[in-house]
Amino acid sequence: MATGVAAWLPFARAAAIGWMPVATCPMPVAPRDNSKKQDELIILNVSGRRFQTWRTTLDRYPDTLLGSSEKDFFYNEDTKEYFFDRDPDAFRSILNFYRTGKLHYPRHECISAYDEELTFFGIIPEIIGDCCYEEYKDRKRENLERLQDDQEENKDLKLPNLNFRETMWRAFENPHTSTLALVFYYVTGFFIAISVITNVVETVPCSSTTNQKDMPCGERYTVAFFCIDTACVMIFTVEYLLRLFAAPSRYRFMRSVMSIIDVVAILPYYIGLVMTDNEDVSGAFVTLRVFRVFRIFKFSRHSQGLRILGYTLKSCASELGFLLFSLTMAIIIFATVMFYAEKGSSSTKFTSIPASFWYTIVTMTTLGYGDMVPKTIAGKIFGSICSLSGVLVIALPVPVIVSNFSRIYHQNQRADKRRAQKKTRLARIKIAKSGSSNAFLQSKHNGLLNELLELTGSEEDEQKLIKSTSLLESQHHHLLHCLEKTTVRTPLCFALNSQNSSAHEFVDEQVYEQNCLKTALQTYPSHSPSIASHDSPAVSCCCTSGKKNTPLPNASLSPANPVPSHRGPPQELSALHIQASDPMSQISSRSNLNLRTNESNRVNCKSGRITTAIISLPTPPALTPDADGLHGPPQRRPPPPLGPSIQTTTSSAGTNIVKVSAL
Amino acid sequence: MLSAIWETEGLQTVGIVVLVFASIKLLHILGLISFSEDSVEDELELSAVRHRPEGLEQLEAQTRFSRKELQILYRGFKNECPSGVVNEDTFKDIYAQFFPQGDASTYAHFLFNAFDTDHNGSLSFEDFVMGLSILLRGTVQEKLIWAFNLYDINKDGYITKEEMLDIMKAIYDMMGKCTYPVLKEETPRQHVEVFFQKMDKNKDGVVTIDEFIDCCQNDENIMRSMHLFENVL
C-alpha cells in the first residue's frame, strides 16, 4: 500500500488517462467517494500538549490507532478534541511518523517506554527508519540481555523438588549454594594449584649431596612427586566423574571446553601408568607430560576474569584472524626484500627467505634479538621500514580487542552489581508491598474497633481511629474480605481460632511462618519462652547475646515467638548478612510501653550490624500479625510487639534482613 | 677498498629510494592515487535547488482548480519533495510505489517527459498542477491532446510504430511477471498492431494528432473511460 505517497494518488489516477486510448476494453467504474468531507484539522491533546494535524495525515495509516476509528474512543465531546493520557515527548515522534512516513527513535528515550508507546498507538517498531534502526536494535538487545540475566537469577532461587543429581549439578555450577559445594570448590582449586606447582618444581635442579652434578628435583624425589601427582589426578578424576554423572546432558557436557581440558589434564598420567619404562616411547611420554600444564586452565572455573578473557578472545576471533593474516603478509614481503637486499653481502645469515622470516618476525614485534642483522645499507633501510611497519600492523587491531574485552568485562561487573543491588531492592519493595497487605489487616481491625466502640459508645475514639482510607482502598479491602468469607477453613494451622468464623483469613507472613513452624516443631520441648539465645549454630543473627523470646502473659496465645531471624531450615548460603532495623517500631507502638526490659535487648539487636552468617531467611517486616485477630478487646495490650496482638498503630516493627552475597 | 664498496652500495641505495618516491609522486599527479579522503567528498556536491511556486492567485487563474484544491495538492507535493522540485528519479520512485508488482520506471519516464513541458529535467509544482488541471478538469479534446503528447515520445507530431511499441512495452512492464494469462513476448506488438489498425486511417505508418483525436472521439469505450476520471480530486 502506497501509504506514504497517498497524496500523489490523484496524480497517478489522472495519469491513467494515458492508458485509455490504448485499451482494448472499457475501463471499470471508479469507486465513488461518498464520504467526501473537507479536509479538517484534528486536535490531539496529549497530556495537555495540543497537537494539530489534518485528518488525511492520520488516515494515511489506517491500521494504527490514530488512523482508524479506534481513536473515537478517546474523543472528548466537550472540548471537541482527542485526549490521550500519554507521554507528549514520545508522541512527537509518533506524529512525525504520520507526517513524514518515517519513524525515528529518539536517543534519549528509554527503550521500553518507547516500545510501550508504539504498542499503544498500534505502530510496529520494524518500520523505524534506517537512520535510527540500528540504535533501536542495539538498545533493545541490551535490555533483553539484562532481563535474561535477571531471569537466570530467579531460576537459581527455585529450590524445591530437585533430585540428587540436579542438586549436585547445581552445586558444581554455583559453589555458593551449599557448604559442601564451597568446600569442594576450594579443595579442587587447592589441588589444581598443588599440581601446577609440582609440575614446575619438578624441573628445578636440586643439588644432591652424593653426586656432583645437579639433577632436577623430579628425578631425585621421584616417589614424593609421584605420590603428589597421583593424589591430584585422583581428585581430578573423581571430580570429572562426578560432573559427568551430574550433568543434565552428558553428551553436551563431554563436548564442552572445560571437560575437554579436564580430560587432557588427567590423561597423561594414565597413559604414563600404562606405558611403563619402555625406552622407545619414553620420548613420547616426556612429550605427554607437557599436557599436564593444561591443568592450569582448570582454574578458569574458579576465576571469572579468566573466563571473560577466553570469551573475549573467542569473540574477537575475526580481529585476531585479521591481525594474523596481515602479519603473515608483511612477514613474507619483508623477508623476501631482506633476502634479496642481503644477497650480495658475504657471510650473511640471510641464507634463504624462510631464514629471513625469523629476522622479520623479531624485527616487526620490536624484539630485536640481534642474532641476525643486515649488513648492507639497502638491508638496513628496509630493515628499519620493516620495524616501523611492524609497530603499525600490530597496533591496529589491538584496540578493537581491548574495547571488546572492556565491554564484556564491564557488562559482567554490571551484572554482578545488579545482582547485589537486587536483594536490597527486592527487600524494600517487599516492605512496601507488605505495607499494603497489612493495611488491609489494619483496616479490618479498625472496622472491628468501630464495632466495639459503638458498643462502648465512645465517640472521639471512633473519630480518631477512622483513618481516611480512600474509596479505592476501602473497595479493595471489601473485596479481600469477601474472598475471606468465601473460603472454608481447614483445621491445619489455625488451631487457636476456634472461636472464629470458618473462613480463611489473610495474615501476616510472619505469623503464618510461626504457625507453620509451630506445627513442624511440635516435638521440640525446648521450644519454650526464654530469653536465652538459641543454641542452634545455624542462626547467627546479632542477637546472640540477647535472643528475644519474650514471655507472653497470656498463655492462651501461641507460645514463644522466635525472633525475626527464623530458625527455618538452612536455605541459602550467603557470605554477608546485613541486618537493618527500623527504628520506628519501638517508639510508636503503644504496647511497647510495658516492655522496657525488652527494649534494651531489642535495641542491641537492632543496630545495623554486618555479620557473616551462614544462614539467613528473609523475614518480612512485621506489623503485628493477626493470627487470631478477631477476638479480644483492645485493652489486651501487653503482649510484645511481635506477639499476636491487635495494634492500632501502623508502625512496621521488624527487622529487615537483607542478604547480599558476593563471590 | 671498503669505502669503494660502500660508495657504490650507497649510491645504489640512494638511487633506489629516489626512484621509488618519484614513481609515487608521478602516480599522484596522474590522479591514480589520492592520499586524502577529501577528494571523495568533493564529488558529492549537493546542489541545493529550491523552487517556490508562483502565488496562489496566479495558479488559480491558470488552472481550473479551486483555492482549496490547490492547497491540498501543494501540501501533498511539498511533503514528498520538500525542495519544491521533483527530479526524474524521485518521480520514478513515487510512481513505482503505486505499482509494486511491476517495473514502472519506463512508463514513469514517459510521464515525466509529458509533464515536464519546459524540458528542464525537473518537475516544479506549476508543471505538475498544469498537467493535472488538463487531465482532471480539461475538455475531452485537451485530454486527448495530452495523451497524444504522451505517446509522441520525440514530440515531432507523429506517433510511429516504434514509439507506440515503447509505450506499450512500458505499460506491460508495469504489470510485472505474475499475470494471468502469462504475458508473452509478442503481446505488446500485437496490441500495437491493433492500435494502428484502429488509428491509422490513411495507412501511412504513422498516426497524426488529427487521426488520433478523430478516432478516439468516435470510439465509445474511450469516451466513456475519459469521464471516469473526473472526480479524482
UniProtKB/TrEMBL annotation, chain A:
GO biological process: action potential; potassium ion export across plasma membrane; protein homooligomerization
Gene Ontology CC, one term: dendritic spine
Record-annotated membrane-spanning stretches: 180-201, 221-242, 254-275, 320-341, 353-369, 381-402
Entry annotated with the keyword Transmembrane helix: yes
Membrane topology classification: Multi-pass membrane protein
Region annotated Disordered, chain positions: 616-663
Compartments in which it is found: Cell membrane; Cell projection, Dendrite
Signal peptide: 1-16
Keyword annotations from UniProtKB, A to Z: Cell membrane, Cell projection, Ion channel, Ion transport, Membrane, Metal-binding, Phosphoprotein, Potassium, Potassium channel, Potassium transport, Signal, Transmembrane, Transmembrane helix, Transport, Voltage-gated channel, Zinc
Molecular-function GO terms, alphabetical: A-type (transient outward) potassium channel activity; metal ion binding
PROSITE patterns in alphabetical order: BTB
Name of one Pfam family that matches: Ion_trans
Biased composition (Polar residues): 645-655
All residue ranges annotated as the BTB domain in the record: 38-107
Database matches in InterPro entries: BTB/POZ_dom, Ion_trans_dom, K_chnl_volt-dep_Kv, K_chnl_volt-dep_Kv4, K_chnl_volt-dep_Kv4.3, K_chnl_volt-dep_Kv4_C, Shal-type_N, SKP1/BTB/POZ_sf
Catalysed reactions, semicolon-separated: K(+)(in) = K(+)(out)
PANTHER family: POTASSIUM VOLTAGE-GATED CHANNEL SUBFAMILY D MEMBER 3 (PTHR11537:SF182), VOLTAGE-GATED POTASSIUM CHANNEL (PTHR11537)
Descriptive protein name: Potassium voltage-gated channel subfamily D member 3
From TrEMBL, chain B:
Record-annotated membrane-spanning stretches: 12-35
Pfam families (alphabetical): EF-hand_7, EF-hand_8
Main location group: membrane
Gene Ontology biological process terms, A to Z: regulation of potassium ion transmembrane transport
Keywords tagged on the record: Calcium, Cell membrane, Cytoplasm, Ion channel, Ion transport, Membrane, Metal-binding, Peroxisome, Phosphoprotein, Potassium, Potassium channel, Potassium transport, Repeat, Transmembrane, Transmembrane helix, Transport, Voltage-gated channel
Membrane topology: Peripheral membrane protein
Cellular compartments annotated: Cell membrane; Cytoplasm; Peroxisome
Entry protein name: Kv channel-interacting protein 4
GO CC field: peroxisome; voltage-gated potassium channel complex
Entry's Gene Ontology molecular function annotations: calcium ion binding; potassium channel activity; potassium channel regulator activity
Family recorded in the similarity comment: Belongs to the recoverin family.
Residue span, EF-hand domain: 103-138, 139-174, 187-222
Species name: Fundulus heteroclitus (Killifish)
